[in-house]
Write a structure and sequence with these properties.
The protein is mainly α. The chain contains 17 helices and 4 strands. The two termini are about 35 Å apart.
Length: about 350
């Protein structure tokens, strides 16, 4: 799924950190959001498009353009749906009429409406996440427009120039939705659940603001830390969400990782993988997959991101760093200051 394009002496601080520590799991939930107001209203584009009056097609298109604007519509029709732009010619407008009345699209629309008769639960989740985002990043703007749509399984959450947040609801119909079997392997379709909507939305915002200019030439260890920054960001803006969702794991996969953390780290050391620059090694530990090749079959794909996440947690606990510092700090510095040794935890 894509996205678019204190003044205190050192000695006193050290003593305080020893006495109280900086508990990663507790401190990110101790946030006072009073005075931070966010209101999210979702526009159901899929309803407006699929319920267009085919007897007054030209007028319906103009109403659609007036409500959503040409920038969103151009991107949606051409890049998301990969069909001809209905505003370019009469023939293209007629093609859209054919598209929205076709039985497969009508069936998909019905499935979306059955799963999401109301957008209010999503609005509520976004309001909470946006409040945390504004708390940690007060100078960053939030999307002015939130739109749901049908993407024919092409896109989950997208941002358009940080102005519009789009959500392809047809990619969140539940892991057992039958049509997914025709397009996706099970290790991907297991993530197409309603609980992932808010995670993917905030991931899209992270990539919009902080996900650029990644140094892909870094060694595996530092790439794991860089990739994990997004998961740490999610843990701050979604502090009440289940942790396994931050990685796209199941709860069972997360529990396996936690039970085997020491062995995972030992495997990376024994196989001389931490400072590997081999592209295959990086893909093996950072890419989506049913498992991580070479490890027990219970080891999920992207296990390297989970290891990086734990390194950053130790860095935060040791340095009292906040999320903004985590995002801007080099992965090399984070690892060096983390003193990460799971066997001693």
């Amino acid at each position: 799924m894509e996205t678019y394009n204190t003044k205190i002496t050192t000695s006193i601080l050290f003593i305080l950190l020893i006495i109280t520590g900086c508990d990663f799991n507790k401190n990110r939930k101790k946030v006072d959001l009073s005075g931070i107001e966010t209101e999210v209203t979702i526009d159901r584009f899929e309803i407006d498009m699929m319920e267009m009056d085919t007897a007054n097609w030209e007028r319906s298109l103009k109403e659609l353009e007036y409500k959503y604007g040409r920038e969103f519509l151009d991107i949606y029709f051409v890049q998301v749906l990969n069909i001809r732009n209905p505003f370019e010619s009469e023939a293209d407008a007629e093609f859209l009429k054919f598209f929205v009345t076709s039985p497969p699209i009508q069936s998909l629309y019905d499935s979306v409406m059955l799963a999401y008769p109301s957008q209010e639960p999503i609005e509520s989740k976004l309001e909470g996440a946006f409040s945390y985002f504004k708390y940690y990043f007060p100078k960053r703007s939030l999307p002015e427009q939130v739109v749901t749509f049908i993407s024919e399984f092409g896109y989950g959450a997208i941002t358009i120039d940080s102005v519009t947040l789009g959500i392809g609801l047809d990619l969140y119909l539940g892991s057992n939705f039958r049509a997914y079997n025709n397009y996706f392997p099970q290790y991907l379709s297991k993530k197409f659940i309603p609980e992932r909507i808010i995670v993917d939305c905030m991931s899209s915002l992270y990539n919009e603001y902080f996900g650029h200019n990644k140094d892909l030439s870094k060694a595996l260890l530092y790439r794991m830390v860089d990739e994990a920054k997004q998961s740490v960001f999610l843990s701050y803006v979604l502090p009440e969400e289940d942790e396994h969702l931050l990685f796209g794991f199941t709860q069972e996969e997360l529990e396996w990782c936690e039970a085997n953390e020491e062995e995972i780290w030992k495997f990376l050391i024994d196989q001389d993988l931490l400072f590997s620059n081999d592209l295959i090694d990086k893909r093996r530990f950072l890419s989506e997959g049913p498992t991580t090749n070479g490890m027990p079959e219970e080891a999920p794909g992207r296990i390297g991101t989970w290891v990086g996440y734990n390194i950053i947690k130790e860095y935060i606990n040791n340095s009292n760093a906040g999320i903004k510092k985590v995002i801007t700090e080099s992965s090399e510095m984070i690892y060096n200051k983390s003193s990460y040794k799971p066997s001693r935890r």
